[in-house]
Design a protein that fits this description.
The chain has helices at 13-37, 42-57, 84-89, 98-105, 123-128, 163-213, 220-252, 264-282, 300-316, 359-362, 385-395; strands at 59-67, 74-79, 91-92, 109-111, 135-142, 145-155, 259-263, 285-289, 295-299, 323-332, 344-352, 400-405, 409-417. It is an alpha+beta fold and 429 residues long. A six-stranded antiparallel β-sheet has the order 3-2-1-6-5-4, sandwiched between helices. Strands 8-10-11-13-12 form a five-stranded mixed β-sheet. Strands 7-9 form a two-stranded antiparallel ribbon.
């Protein structure tokens, strides 16, 4: 009998079940590909790829390493098991690692016994106290060039790897590479457009000022005012270009953290010494509550940049003779009673007694170039300081947020990992 429609013929029920499973997997892969192509935020995109890799291969964890355009190094950019700080601390060797081999050859590699493989890089396992049993690594290729590697790690329940796993992850990696390149291009063009728009205002002011200075009948007092204006605009241009570069590096992943252990209390007092002249001008006083011996593990210079930004804002938007309360407390990540020392975080708060933030401005607080219309006569800035500060904190695996009541004051807070206590060796006998 002819039906006009071909039907697969299977020798047994297991083969038919496997066929249905594969069809469901490829259908899911198509859905995921559509989601990736519609995502233009790079961070969100990378996290979606990670989740898809573990789902489609039925593995415990996954990671993405991208090739650094400037240095050619392989760097972790996303992982379902590592914080941002941990990822930044690890450079994957191009020679002497599975991912490095895949990146250089453009060929997938399936490793059934990772611990005994000569190319297995143990740096991640040692850092995380994790054990990699097996893994599948595939290249991400865009425009005939390997831009990174996707790894799926540890098959669940001891299930064996299959050719379909490799085909599926390779297909995902191909879609991911295109989506990553599109996100990078969109990010770059969007940022350049915003940058050009912001540069126009000080450049127009400088052009108008130079035209006025050329007038022979210009009174001397007016000439001095114009020169002062030009100095202010050139300072603003300098700040803008510095902030542009900082944010561009953070968003592209080219900024690398140089983390170390240091006392957070000492850093806070160091920053206070810098902002004290500005605070004294407005009669603003600081009250610091902090465990002076508490140690943080992060990039000290970057966190200093965050603190200085929040402190100067707390001064600028405060009331005359107001106060700023700087406090550091320990918090635990999650609600589990079994939280270990390494999961504890330091929460740094700066609470002012200032003008507060309106409900409308709260919606845009961490948007690029946002400056409150209500505060234009109070202080001027590039509109990038808070965005940069938030990116720095997030790069360390922390979070930044705020709370504010109009006319009462504002508190900005962020979290950072504390330094782990050194291991203690105990000899017996």
């Amino acid at each position: 009998m002819t039906t006009g429609q071909s039907t697969p013929i299977f020798s047994n029920e297991a083969a038919f079940t496997n066929y249905l499973r594969l069809m469901a997997r490829y259908e899911r892969l198509m859905e995921i590909s559509q989601q990736l192509n519609s995502t233009l935020d790079l961070g969100t995109l990378l996290n979606k790829i990670i989740r898809a890799a573990t789902e489609l291969t039925d593995t415990e964890t996954a990671s993405i390493m991208l090739v650094d355009v400037a240095t050619g190094e392989l760097r972790f950019e996303a992982s379902s098991q590592m914080s941002r700080g941990a990822m930044d601390a690890i450079i994957v060797p191009k020679d002497g690692s599975i991912a490095g081999w895949v990146a250089q050859t453009g060929v997938p590699m399936l490793v059934e016994d990772a611990q005994s493989h000569p190319l297995f890089f143990k740096g991640v396992d040692d850092t995380l106290a994790f054990r990699t049993r097996n893994l599948l690594a595939v290249p991400m290729v865009a425009h005939n060039k390997v831009i990174g590697v996707v790894q799926a790690i540890n098959k669940r329940d001891g299930i064996a790897w299959t050719d379909d796993d490799m085909n599926t992850l390779s297909a995902l990696a191909a879609q991911a590479a295109i989506a990553i390149e599109n996100a990078r291009l969109f990010q770059q063009s969007d940022f350049i457009s915003e940058m050009v728009h912001e540069l126009r205002t000080p450049l127009a002011a400088l052009k108008a000022s130079t035209s006025l200075l050329l007038r022979p009948d210009l009174p001397e007092p007016r000439r001095k005012d114009i020169v002062t204006t030009m100095q202010g605009e050139t300072d603003r241009l300098a700040r803008l270009t510095t902030d542009f570069l900082d944010l561009a590096r953070l968003e592209s992943g080219r900024t690398r953290l140089e983390s170390s252990t240091y006392k957070i209390g000492k850093l806070i007092h160091e920053c206070l010494d810098i902002v004290r002249p500005q605070a004294n001008e407005r009669g603003v006083t600081f009250v610091v509550t902090c465990d002076e011996v508490l140690e943080i593990f992060s990039d000290r210079n970057k966190i200093k940049q965050v603190l200085l930004n929040l402190m100067t804002n707390a001064i600028k938007y405060n009331k005359e003779r107001g106060q700023v309360f700087a406090t550091v407390t320990l918090v635990e990540e999650g609600d589990s009673k079994e939280t270990t020392e390494r999961e504890k975080l330091a929460r740094i708060e700066l609470r002012d007694t200032g003008l507060g933030i309106s409900e409308e401005d709260k919606k845009h607080m961490f948007e690029k170039f946002h400056r409150s219309a209500a505060h234009t006569n109070v202080a001027q800035g590039t509109g990038l300081g808070l965005v940069i500060a938030k990116r720095i904190v997030e790069a360390h695996g922390g979070e930044m947020g705020f709370d504010s009541t109009l006319g009462v004051g504002t508190v900005f807070y962020f979290t950072l990992p504390i330094a782990r206590p050194p291991a203690v060796e105990i000899s017996v006998g």
